[in-house]
Amino acid sequence: MNQFVIKKKVYVGMSGGVDSSVAAALLKKQGYDVVGVFMKPWQPFDDENFCLWKQDREDALRAASVIGIPLLTWDFSKEYKKSVADYMVREYRAGRTPNPDVMCNKEIKFGLFLKRALKEGADYIATGHYILKKGNQLWQAKDKNKDQSYFLWTLTEKQIERSLFPIGNYTKPEVRKLAKKFKLPNHDKKDSQGVCFIGPLDMKEFLTEYIKPKPGKILLQGETLKEIGTHDGVYYYTIGQRHGLNIGIGGGPYYVIGKDIKKNIIYMGANIEVATNVTKVGETNWLVNMPITNIDVKVRYRTPSVKAVLAKNGVLKFKKPERAITSGQSAVFYHGQQLLGGGIIL
To answer: pTM to 2 decimals?
Structure first.
């Protein structure tokens, strides 16, 4: 007598890209009851040429049809505007450099999407993130070039418990091959570039819609401060930035090494002047029970982790000077390849 087995239900966030499509196909093959969900994003401009989400939804629909699963469309545009876009503007206005992908994962994918999916009867959600899950802990993906653990440090143990990451143990070329094997129509679709759900975005153009330009001086740091150009607002520039500044001298390269928000001044310097041995982090989140003081840290995506010591008061001391540490960005903590947590650079 065959015993009736109830399949575990998984809601997969399908963006229309190859990664999330292969994630859904793998789960279907593994015997899960899979439901695809396309999350309608917020649209910053009333421009049909910019409106990429419609094409992405079509790609997700075609992939879901081939896989043999339903695709739901959930409109998260208002929530995205409030939780991610408004946060970006607030941070830039305060002179910091936000990380919208971290906030998008925290508030939308593993916040709103997870809650609604569980409410509708899902046992798990799944995404196309390149990250490995072992028990209820997270580790860097097999493909170190695509690893997205940097953007997932805000997750909680409960969120991890209810989340699946089917492609974490594959490289990007292997994912492409699987997409071809599954006959997915988007197997050769280019990787998306840009801000979380929004897509490609000229950040300065976006910010000028919300923060008015305010011309100011660019000063070169040396034995004395020397005016070398003008800018149109300190809010539009970030620490370590090299391009996109109106500098009237040769030499260099020169980098943004500081900003005075009140005086509306940008300070430039040579690369070595951007480096520092110490910074401070706040709003920390730990994925392990005991915070670890001797850690590996990434202060930017796709950079090698560096050795550091984290004090209880949030002071982070690097073994070697680290360049372009930027207020508002994420400092993400590791022990080897295991993701420990992270915090916001103050």
So the answer is: 0.91
